[in-house]
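[Automated response] Your request has been received and processed.

Submitted sequence:
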Amino acid sequence: MTQLSPKSAETLSRWLEDSSVDESTKAELRALENEPQELEERFYRDLEFGTGGLRGVIGAGSNRINRYTVGRATQGFANFILEKHTGEGRPSVVIAHDSRRFSPEFTLEAALVLAANGIEAHLFTSLRSTPQLSFSVRHLKATGGIVITASHNPPEYNGYKVYNSEGGQLVPHEAEKVISYILEVDTFDGVKRISQEEAEAQGLLHWLGEKDDEAFTDTVAAVSLASEEIASTLGKDFKIVYTPLHGTGNLPVRRVLERIGFTQVHVVPEQEQPDSEFSTVKSPNPEEREAFTLAIKLGEELNADLLIGTDPDADRMGAVVRNNEGKFVVLSGNQSGALMIHYYLSRLQEQGKLPSNGAVVKTIVTSEMGAAVASHYGATVFNTLTGFKYIGEKMTQFEQSGDYTYLFGYEESYGYLAGNYARDKDAVLAAMLIAEAGAYYKAQGKTLYDVLQELYEQFGYFLESLESRTLKGKDGVAQIQGIMNDWRTNAPQEIAGSAVTEVLDYSLGLNGLPKENVLKYLLADGSWFCLRPSGTEPKIKVYFAVVGESLQNAKDKVATLSKQVMARVDGEQ
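Generated structure:
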């Protein structure tokens, strides 16, 4: 590319000429005058507000996340809230942020735009987790919520997620309404703002603190099914190594573990403090073994029983356990989910607390192993599209109808929730529950790995894997769409030696679910694979799941299936 497209050139000119744009932003753009490819990427479109909100690279430009794109999104959200609010008094929004670059600045920007629209903003004085934001929206009976985070994305990213009055991320019909409002807002002229001093003086800016943290800790700890046993015996010799991966989990996870009686919790010192560069890891993602390198080193030194990691906004939890050879292995999200479902439901049953109308909710790309375990305990299993907002939506439906009692919800991507206090996944709760399960089974002479093998023997050797391809920028969007179109129009008849028995195209709105660009292929041997463009990253994700006659057989099956599917995705056949 040698020059900007007319649209990009026009938008760039507007940014450089508008008097409301600060000089540092203009200087950043002027410094790129000899980099037309970079400028095209920054201006060929507006940063898309999807069903999960905004997520993008930090920087100047309409296709970047910055105070102006955050302000525009907030003005659209404010218009949505004002339309919905019909009660007495002012509407209100709770705002939280994580440890990323510019998170405090974007938080304040959002608050001051809300305040200018007569909406009370409730801010935490420092970084807090996403699940605490979800809880606080409900606890404070707010009209909505915002969290500034890019979850486990690389450090150059930040994001902006919005929540409804139930404490859940916006579901499609709500997000579409917000998007329509945002599209009506001019990035500069259409955004209302007042100063922090004005907002505080008018009672439109409030600060949250210790009392709100205590309410969250108390509520999460109340979900425990073994706090008395842990406090009296089990928690005293169960060693936990924990890493917050430089994010928001450090204080809330330690508080909850301490609250229910764990006394040997060791935090990885190099990763304890917030760090927007995530300087000790390639990616602050507990789904990846590399993120646990320092935790495993400390775990070996301390002879720990369990290692736990949480992502920067503490909504995803990864666990590392010892196998039967004494070596640390990272559990997949599906494995941790199955273990927690088994522990939680079996303990409810033992205590006479398991309801007859219990429900477990999972996503369409999550393993069927957890479903098999849940069904064993008499729970009804519901499937949703990918995204915890859909699980949260089911929770609210159950609460309103009374037809089912929500027990547990989870995604393969390390997101879990038990209890009815929030509408988003909670790594704080998951850390407590996996530690509680580990201590409970240790008292029986078992490791969590031992229990997992028992579940395999009882329910089948379920095994899953995930492949992804990162395809950035304007060309990447087109490549991803091309891959999806190819598979949609040329479905295979057979793959990995097994016939394709059914193709589920979720863009058609199957089983009462919202329409989404997802393809799932069911095979005759019980295996399946699924293609899904990521809603938060420039990636296409491909999920694989098999059931084997043994663990090795399952490993062989998933490897063969993955190899053949990805060869086509990569254009090799």
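Summary generated for your ticket: Residues 91 and 119 are 5 Å apart (CA to CA). The longest helix spans residues 551-569.
If you did not submit this request, please reply to this message.
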